[in-house]
Amino acid sequence: MKLITTFENFVRFSTIFSTQIKYLLLLVLIVPASMTLVSSSQAGESGADAFVGEVTLVLGKAYVERSGKNRRNVEVGSPIRVNDQIVTGANGHVHIRFVDQALVSVRPGSRLEIVRYDYNASQPENSTIKFNLIEGVTRSISGDAAKSARERYRLNTPIAAIGVRGTDFVVSASQQTVRALVNEGIIVMAPFSADCTADSFGPCSTNAVELSGDSLQILELDTQAPTLLLATLDRDPSIMRDETPPVVADNPVSATNEVEEQAASGDIYLENVTSLKVTEVAEAEVEAITRDFTPAEPISAEILLDRQLVWGRWIWSEGQGDLERITVPVTEVSETHQITLANLDYGLFRVEENGIDTVEKGLGIVGFALQSAQAFYHSESGVVAMQVNDGSLSINFINNTFGTELNLNSSATGAIDFSAAGSIFSSGYFYDRSDTQKIFGAISLDGSEAGYFFDQQLENGGIQGLTLWDSR
Q1: Which run of H or E residues covers position 204?
Q2: Is residue 460 included in any domain, yes or no?
Q3: Which residues pair with 80 in a beta bridge?
């Protein structure tokens, strides 16, 4: 896959394949604990009873199910066997280390089945592995088996098969859509067909598309035409230990203590996400401090869709709307607006008519007033909403530059100032990134509206949010 070499080309739509596959952007990284496990052959087990891994971290509600047996709660140290299904609740999150040192995380609202895990420690090239992601999101980091027997590894989803070539990747799956992001290595995705069946192993070749970690893209398979969007989120593994889990357990204190202990010992990596799941305590805190430019209640889709710029959310799980203030489901906004920039969670959509996608000329210097925003602070203690007290945005269309500042506050952080500056392109897209923060956004074609996503890493956590602006 050809790497996009300029920002302008990088964010443009293009039809690349005749299959029903498109590219998007994204973020999300977890690595479970470092443990020494024995292989199933060493344990003297085989087949459906084979011990193949062990749970290394549990947050929230999570279970293991298998045919003919009662559902059981997952705990740290719980054994994982062939034919087990790992099921996570809305606030559940599970990390597993397998016998070949493979690492898998199962994110909230997911169901992952261990179909087969035959690891041959003496001849790893003869190993065979198959997972079935029935729904939800999982991250997989290949162990010795997948690295040595790439033609005998398979991750099935409801509509597509994924093979690997020594890889670290994230997959989000539903009955209609599959999205994948590669952090390192290469995956091969193909829709199921007569030549690519769920029963087979390894990558399929019919209608298949490769995606590499250096392509800065996300691969999506659904009923839409192929499109290419901007990838904005960092995938540098060196920053993962400083980032935070997206979920806190039913007992936030004990969960936080457990995570802190394991993080301090270097046993786990923590995850930074924009998909927010909070406990009842955090939800109460959100309600208590959400004010100023953050709407007290979600703005209706009817009002938001009347704007030229609209934030759409890719994944809209049950209850998620209560946390979102200025977004609508992508399925709604895509009927009237065109995608500009995106990450795995959000896309900024814009009204474009008659194929015109460049900003009007002669706009000069335009100042913008903040209209609405949403922002969150995430740390190892959980997630809290932030006030967005004030902000400024100025765009100079003469020298194609922008500058912005936001004033944020929360009980957990105190006052925080976010500021950024960079270039804006004729398409109206602007983008900037440093070691500790990033921003991407766009303006309407007539220069009357603007919106951007921002992210800033702090010493003990990070802030993320969305904004909408009107010209003064």
Answers
A1: none
A2: yes
A3: 53
Map tokens 């909070």 to a residue: 278
For residue range 41-63, list pLDDT tens digits in order: 333 344 567 899 999 988 888 99
> CB-based burial of residue 463 (10 Å sphere; 0-12 exposed, 13-18 middle, 19+ buried)?
buried
Domain containing 207 — which CATH number? 2.60.120.1440
Q: What is the CATH number of the domain that holds 453?
A: 2.40.160.90
Q: What is the maximal distance between C-alpha atoms in the chain?
A: 75
The Cα–Cα gap between 278 and 22 comes to 31
- On the question of pLDDT at 97 being above 60, the answer is yes
The answer as to whether 317 is a domain residue is yes
- Give the structural domain span for 357: 283-471
pLDDT digits (tens, 9 = 90+) for 281-316: 334 333 433 347 999 889 999 999 999 999 998 876
Q: What distance in Å separates the CA atoms of residue 86 and residue 460, rounded to the nearest whole number? A: 31
Q: DSSP for 239-291? A: GGGGS--S---SSHHHHHHHHHHHHHTT-------SS----HHHHHHHHHH--
Predicted confidence band at 373 (pLDDT cuts at 50, 70, 90)?
Answer: very high
In angstroms, rounded to a whole number, what is the distance separating the alpha carbons of residues 269 and 374? 27
Q: What angle do CA 391, 392, 396 make, to 5 degrees?
A: 160
Question: In terms of domains, do 209 and 347 share one?
Answer: no
Same-domain check for residues 328 and 435:
yes
> Looking at the 3D structure of the chain, how many domains does it have?
2
- Asked whether residue 39 falls in the same domain as residue 143, the answer is yes
